[in-house]
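Hi R.,

As promised, here are both runs. First protein below:
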Amino acid sequence: MVINDAIQLTVTITLFILSYIFYKINVSFCCFFILVAVFTTRNTPVNLASMAIERYIAVCEPLRHAQICTVRRTHMVIGLIWFICVAPDITDLFVTLATESLSFFHESVFCLRQNVFKDPILATKRQAFDIIYFSCVFLTLVFTYFRIVFAARALSTEKTSAQRARNTILIHGAQLAMCLLSYISPSVELVLHLLFTGRILEIRFANYLVVYILPRFLSPIIYGVRDKKFRKYLKMHLLSKGFRDKLQRVAPQHKDAQ
């Protein structure tokens, strides 16, 4: 998920900067950026679902966890995730190649998905797949959460592990909720554009920060702070920094007193 989010942020930030500098870019380059951004954006909720299933197996099937969650199977799951995320959206490119003339790919456009993949059928297909993907992920998170809650009540010896797994799935649910903002962002952007005419670039920038940057910005912080070693060194760094600041404030007063 970290690699996926890193690719997503790199591509979308590059695209955002290019749109500010050049405004319009070549359609072929735009297709590449859009498709990679779409693949990695769709990847995030499916990754969350797979991580929730792994936590469910660890708590509800602890004796079989090592047998089920092997490195080889993990690689297979990662490959499957990429396949089911790439397959629906790569068809947009094939449909566009079939319906648009070759000269279209030499033109320059403002790089938005609807400006490149213009067929109305593609928009309907995207909405359908978005609903299917996010519904499946939502149901997976709900199912694993309640199964872990029931397992924690039944197994008194595994309450700590179950509680951590339950908290992890709650975090995944919060991340999924933030990913769902991408559903309403076009409508919100349209309303804000009507309210603040002439501020479309600022609105899009704010929308990009909230919908795409913030959910992926929280993940490393949440998982980093939950890690005991990282939390230990973070506290040491903050305390040592606070101590140094205090010394810097006290030193001038001590010098004046002398």
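And here is the second one, sequence first, then its structure tokens:
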Amino acid sequence: MPNCTTVTEFLLLGFSDTRQLQILHFVIFLTVYLAALVGNLLVITVVTTDHHLHSPMYYFLANFSILDLGYISVIVPKSMANSLLNTRKISYAGCVSQVFLFFLFCSADFSFLTIMAYDRYIAICKPLHYEIIMNRRACVQMAACAWAASVIYSALHTGNTFSLPFCHSNIINQFFCEIPQLLKLSCSDTYRRELAAILLSIFLVLGCFVFIVVSYVQIFTAVWRIPSEQGQQKAFSTCIPHLLVVSLFISTVGIAYLKPVSDSPSPLDLLAAVLYSVVPPLMNPVIYSMRNKEIQAALRKLLHKLICSRNNMSIFLS
């Protein structure tokens, strides 16, 4: 039985020991973080302020952008601070918080992607029943269920992981607290509980993925039956961004979690973690704004208002 000592802090993986590269990492992550922050805040702002976007699809999109803000904020600022301060430390409580919040936002992200697929299925395959099925109360209930289920799911994983004794080391071979890396530090056989929870997660994710795929098969079948080309383009313009976001999310998370956990830090592990923790929140607003004409129109309107208000303010001050 290994000697177990109380772990009060963990040491995260640094991107480099060279000071210049640490500063470079800080600048790159700061740029990415600010871009993700601005992009998602713009989506939230246009959805809440433009009455043309007060529909179920954009209500879920606003929730999704809020989740993306939380998703990237859990990891990136701490990594930036460590690089700037030339440290690798994270407290035990900080690590617990990071795991809980990361799983909360990650699982809620996937829940909302599934709900958004259902919303598009009803809108295109059952348009006459859309307002009845996707009424305000139903949307709020679906969103509340997604948030509540994600909190329970995250608490399950976090509780299982941090109920284990850590005695092999306190060095995490990742730039944030990641459950597979934490399990490697455990000296107890009870880690099998968390492995069982991870297997359950895989089945749940696969179930949601199958639901999304089946929904889109029926959506595309219905779209091809639309007689007008304009109608087809409008349907595709609302579906393609969501499909791209789903593909990006599943592919990046799949790359990170389906590969074997290595015993020593590798550039591939680091790259995979950056891909699924940083890229989706950065790219999601870009994907939706590029492919969705209603979002583009709302952004132009918001920009016009800001320019006009700035000009009026300049005239008033002069």
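A quick note on the second one: The chain is about 75% helix and 0% strand. Let me know what you think.

Best,
J.
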